Each structure stands twice: as C-alpha cells, then as structure tokens.
Amino acid sequence: AAGSQIGMIVNSFTNVTVAMIIAFSFSWKLSLVILCFFPFLALSGATQTRMLTGFASRDKQALEMVGQITNEALSNIRTVAGIGKERRFIEALETELEKPFKTAIQKANIYGFCFAFAQCIMFIANSASYRYGGYLISNEGLHFSYVFRVISAVVLSATALGRAFSYTPSYAKAKISAARFFQLLDRQPPISVYNTAGEKWDNFQGKIDFVDCKFTYPSRPDSQVLNGLSVSISPGQTLAFVGSSGCGKSTSIQLLERFYDPDQGKVMIDGHDSKKVNVQFLRSNIGIVSQEPVLFACSIMDNIKYGDNTKEIPMERVIAAAKQAQLHDFVMSLPEKYETNVGSQGSQLSRGEKQRIAIARAIVRDPKILLLDEATSALDTESEKTVQVALDKAREGRTCIVIAHRLSTIQNADIIAVMAQGVVIEKGTHEELMAQKGAYYKLVTTGSPIS
C-alpha cells in the first residue's frame, strides 16, 4: 500500500510541475501571484508530516507493548487463570490501549487544523487570483480566457498537491517502519557467524584456558558477572563448574562459544585467542547439551542431522550417534523408527527422550569440546540415570565442561571449579576438595549455598 501511495505522490508533484509550466506560458504575472500562496501550503504539509511522524513512533511503541501483554496472557493462560490474574491483565491492556487512543485524538486535531489551514489558503488564493486577473484584463489587455486557463491549471496543481498531502499519515507510518527496517539491515554485530575472517587450524585439540576473564552483559552494565575467571582444561579432561545461581557458570560457556567476548582477559583455545578465531570454525568443534533441549518439528533422523550442517551425514553416523546416546533401542521400538516426527518442540516425546536426541545431535558432529549445561537437572530419577550413562559415553575422548547443581553427576570430573561472584575460589578433584573442607565440602555435606 505504501508503495502505491509513493507512486501517487510522485504523480501529484508531476502534475503540479506541468500545471505551473502551462500557467506561466499564458501569464507569468498572474502565475507568480498565485505561486506566492504555495509556501503556506508546503508549510502546512511539512508541519503535518513532522508531527504525525512523531505520533507514529509513539503509536508503534504502544502497540508493541499491547502485543506483548496479549501474547503473555494467551501463552500462559493456564497460569493466569490459576492465580486469578485475569483482571490484572485486562487492566494492563486497557492502560496500554489508552495511549494510542489519546494519540489518535491528538493526530485528528493536528490533521484537522492543517487541512483547514490549507483549504483557507486555497480559497484566499482563488479570490486573489480572480481579483488580480480582473486587474490584468482591464489595465494590461490580458485576454479573459488566459485568466481562466491559468486559474484552471493552478486549481489542477492545487488539487494534486492536496492529494499528495492526504497521504501524509501513511507516509509517516512508512517512514518509521522503514527506518527501523534499515537500521536492522545496517546493523553490524561485533561477532558475526558470516564473517569468513579469523584463525583456523587443522589439529584442533580442545585445550581451553580462561585467563583473568572479566565480563558484564551489555543489558546490565552495572552487574559484573565474571570478575577475573582463571581456569585451564587440558584436551580430554572434564571440568565441572559448581556454584550458586548467577555466579557466572553459564556465562563462561557463552564466552567459549563466542556469543560474547570478555571485556578484559582472554579465552585461549589451543593457544589461540578466541577473539581472533573464526566463529563458524570454533562452533563446528563444539557440541552443547542444555537443560531444555530444543527440537524441531521434523523426524528424529533430521533432528540428529541438524548437529552437523557442514556435510551430508550418512545414516550409519546417525545410528552410531544414537547408540552412543542410548537412544537407538527406543527409536527402533517406534513404528516409523528414525522417520518418526517429534512434533512441535518435541511434544510427542518425554523430556528424557528429547534430551537423548539432543545428546545424539551433539555427538554426530564429533566435537572436540562438549558443553553440558544442567543437562540432567530437569529429569526424573529414572530418566537421569539413562541420560547420565549417555553423557558419560559422550564425554569419552573429548574436552568437556559440565555445569550441574546435582553434585552426584560431577564427582568423577578431572577438575571441579567452585565459583562465587565470578571467580574460582576452589578447584581440584572431588577427593582433594573434600579434604580441604572448604566451600565445596560445605556444599556436599550440608547443601549450604556457596558464598
């Protein structure tokens, strides 16, 4: 719609130009008198455009908030109804809808004033042109038909100009939307997966060194998440991060995957600074299994194959990954086997089954580094045992970083790093840390939070 209206605006201004050429060819004096009124029309249109653009921006923000409240209420309808908060959401929605309503009234007033002003100028111009045209006929011998020709041409141009200004509200909305769209297109992320530059090497080992890493999230610049994290992992070792919520465990994984870069310090991978490593190359050597596995609405086979998009994965590798993830027997018991559709977000499967598919997806790319972020914390006891066996097999021969709240799942780790306030306060094996009788010992024996 906006595209067709832009065409109409161009057409209107073309009509104005042609009409004025015709008018000047018959009587330049009369045309100049009439032309004196055009700046007032332009001022009215410019004022209208400028003010309505500001209102369009406010409208957009208000309607986005309305959509957010509606989406939250509908997507969590059971919770909303269960706690009896329907009235609260209705009131919040009414409050947000009040803003565009008030804006609409202001817009109507501005539009009405500008339209009335423009019409007033046109009537004055019409009167002045006939008055001056009569003067030219009686005093300078101008033929009366020329007066009507000039005025007709100018009326045509004024009509075209008015039609162009009628599209001002649509133009204001389109301008705001286009500005946001081009802002997104022009945005250059500091860490881009499409950037082909960066270091790559053949013999990827999986040695990791966090060297005095300090980090704050851009959305929370006043909250220091990592405050000098330093820990090293040799190839093939398993490092377990332990600590209370918010101490920086998951953040360390995000730095390793280069979703962010540390503000200070370095993350070294095989001796290479992660900031200089090619993002695609780095992530192709990392597999991750998170607390809530994300599955796509396609077959089990396709979900596993999504783990490695660098090449065509033969069915033999899919089956091998499924066997290693303790998934194969379950899949073969299904009527459609590996062609079974998992449903939207894996809705046809249990949490444990979804987790094992996620493990197989991580294994199929044969990563040198495996990240396990609370991979068993949301499972029941029976599912946890099955998934833990799969994770133990997946860890073999790989550098592994484990984040877990259940201490029973990390006691066999080569290094257990106890974190508090973004730093490692203790590290060692389970036996070494128990012998120290520090924060880890307290956590194991009493369950007291780490401070």
UniProtKB/TrEMBL annotation:
GO terms for cellular component: membrane. Keywords: ATP-binding, Glycoprotein, Membrane, Nucleotide-binding, Repeat, Translocase, Transmembrane, Transmembrane helix, Transport. Pfam families: ABC_membrane, ABC_tran. Residues 208-446 form the ABC transporter domain. Its main location: membrane. InterPro entries: AAA+_ATPase, ABC1_TM_dom, ABC1_TM_sf, ABC_transporter-like_ATP-bd, P-loop_NTPase, Type_1_exporter. One of its GO terms (molecular function) is ATP binding. It comes from the Eukaryota. The keyword Zinc-finger does not apply. The chain crosses the membrane at residues 18-43, 108-126, 146-165. It is a multi-pass membrane protein. Residues 1-173 form the ABC transmembrane type-1 domain. Belongs to the ABC transporter superfamily. ABCB family. Multidrug resistance exporter (TC 3.A.1.201) subfamily. This is ATP binding cassette subfamily B member 11. The lineage of its organism: Eukaryota, Metazoa, Chordata, Craniata, Vertebrata. The gene is ABCB11.
